[in-house]
């Protein structure tokens, strides 16, 4: 980026990681971190945040983690609190209909 290009982005790292996990529930956090431009430790902290808030669950599958998105959860901010995250995931992933909640 040059000096005239804004440095902000529309998605937070939390949203970006949630989207990446929705696309590939077996994704390695090392890969998530590399694509997101953050450290692996930061990616781990974000996944812990998302898990603690109920947006995803993590289960161990051998040496790997497998993630499941709780698509019925709602956005945290009051301005979007009446919308489920399934709509965002469907929009970003190009789905014509949001997935059914798996809570």
Automatic annotation (TrEMBL):
SUPFAM superfamilies xrefs: Winged helix' DNA-binding domain
One Pfam family linked to the record: MarR_2
InterPro entries to which the protein is assigned, alphabetical: ArsR-like_HTH (IPR011991), HTH_MarR-typ (IPR000835), WH-like_DNA-bd_sf (IPR036388), WH_DNA-bd_sf (IPR036390)
Domain HTH marR-type: 13-62
Signal sequence coordinates: none
Recorded GO MF terms: DNA-binding transcription factor activity
Domain of life: Bacteria
Protein name: MarR family transcriptional regulator
Species the sequence originates in: Actinospica acidithermotolerans
Top-level taxonomy: Bacteria, Bacillati, Actinomycetota, Actinomycetes, Catenulisporales
């Amino acid at each position: 980026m040059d000096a005239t290009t804004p440095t902000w982005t529309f998605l937070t790292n939390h949203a970006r990681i949630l989207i990446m996990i929705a696309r590939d529930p077996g994704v390695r956090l090392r890969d998530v971190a590399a694509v997101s431009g953050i450290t692996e430790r930061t990616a781990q902290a974000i996944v812990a945040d998302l898990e603690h808030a109920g947006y995803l669950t993590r289960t161990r599958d051998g040496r790997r983690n497998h993630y499941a998105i709780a698509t019925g959860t709602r956005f945290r901010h009051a301005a979007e609190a009446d919308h489920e995250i399934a709509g965002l995931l469907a929009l970003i992933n190009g789905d014509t209909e949001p997935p059914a909640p798996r809570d």
